[in-house]
Amino acid sequence: MQVIYTEKAPKPIGPYSQAVKYENLIFISGQIAIDPSTNEFVNSDVATQTKIIMENIKAILEEAGINLNHVIKTTIFLKNLEDFQVVNEIYGQYFKDHKPARSTVEVSRLPKNALVEIEVIAGL
């Protein structure tokens, strides 16, 4: 197992890695809207939070030497499933032709009271 870390994505807020590589897979920990330049949570609307998350995921993938086209599976956690359409629209801007498998679930609470969290599995 190899730990993947980049300054272009937020530092972990707990005892975990931004991502790990195991054989030909990259597992990116759940990302919330943390600005990597300040390491502060961006308490904003769900669209802004989703954009920040997707940019952080892109940065971690780039550190691993791959891109969004290598994503196999995503899991989206929403505080309110009524935000699904907005999140789906932003998410779709990042996955145009390549459409990974995905699960979306509503949860009662996320770290920092985020509105959305996204985790990713990618392949080399």
TrEMBL record:
Pfam families: Ribonuc_L-PSP. One of its GO terms (cellular component) is cytosol. Transmembrane segments: none annotated. InterPro entries: RidA (IPR006056), RidA_CS (IPR019897), RutC-like_sf (IPR035959), YjgF/YER057c/UK114 (IPR006175). SUPFAM superfamilies: YjgF-like. One of its GO terms (molecular function) is deaminase activity. NCBIfam families: Rid family detoxifying hydrolase. Belongs to the RutC family. This is Putative endoribonuclease L-PSP. It comes from Sulfurihydrogenibium azorense (strain DSM 15241 / OCM 825 / Az-Fu1).
